[in-house]
Amino acid sequence: xxxxxxxxxxxxxxxxxxxxxxxxxxxxxxxxxxxxxxxxxxxxxxxxxxxxxxxxxxxxxxxxxxxxxxxxxxxxxxxxxxxxxxxxxxxxxxxxxxxxxxxxxxxxxxxxxxxxxxxxxxxxxxxxxxxxxxxxxxxxxxxxxxxxxxxxxxxxxxxxxxxxxxxxxxxxxxxxxxxxxxxxxxxxxxxxxxxxxxxxxxxxxxxxxxxxxxxxxxxxxxxxxxxxxxxxxxxxxxxxxxxxxxxxxxxxxxxxxxxxxxxxxxxxxxxxxxxxxxxxxxxxxxxxxxxxxxxxxxxxxxxxxxxxxxxxxxxxxxxxxxxxxxxxxxxxxxxxxxxxxxxxxxxxxxxx
Length: 352
Description:
Nucleotidyltransferase, domain 5; Actin, Chain A, domain 4; 6-stranded mixed β-sheet; 5-stranded mixed β-sheet
């Protein structure tokens, strides 16, 4: 009865609190927010000036008194206060304009929140995420591990007694897990993912061409030219940066092959870890995975040819989930509709 009272004022929401992007889905309504995990603050007053897309535009372009920061690193909170401010902004944004009515919900609105977290985080790191959500205005904050959320979002039958193999390649972490009977049989959380690929590209441009580029440029190059295998139609792009020797702007034309070389070591680390988990998987579950295939989710799943590369290395079929960027937040949203499933998969829960 008491919980029903709250639902009159608040939308229950699922959150994929990512290192690079934060996605928010409303129970029964789908994804409503998809914005960068960036916050711009005034250095002296610590006042929040912008969040999300507006803040990302400021990266590398701010005056001395403004700092644009990413409050999460490698999938965990590196700046608690800024993370809290970002979560509060997104929770309030969800409740400002429900159904496009223009009606603003009262300040009493405090939703239940389900948040996906990396499977390898410590108890302290889990508590930090939960406390940030509660401080940001949630009345309850439940945490579920990202590979489990990704599997639910991808539509895998996680409660069956068969094995499912999920690989979620995000910005800060790569989550690899074998799931059966609603639990993680084996899992590994690598702090090697999209951010490392961006850094690989920055290092490559500096070492090969003596040109310094920023994180945003590196990410754009990865999206446009990144690949894990030789492509039928190799592409080229012009990259602009600062020449280290002269300090002046310089344009360089680079190819898909060069970016493939730049990110190859990070790709190999991910493939090697998948191979290691397969070696540890019980034979009964391994036969299920051979039949069902390895499922790729997360932004890294969009790297061209990555599915083929993993398949060639593991001799397993590999599938890319539908809309892999949103599987975690869709999984978080789905468990809000199935409280029995939430009780099985949640890491911890809290009520303020």
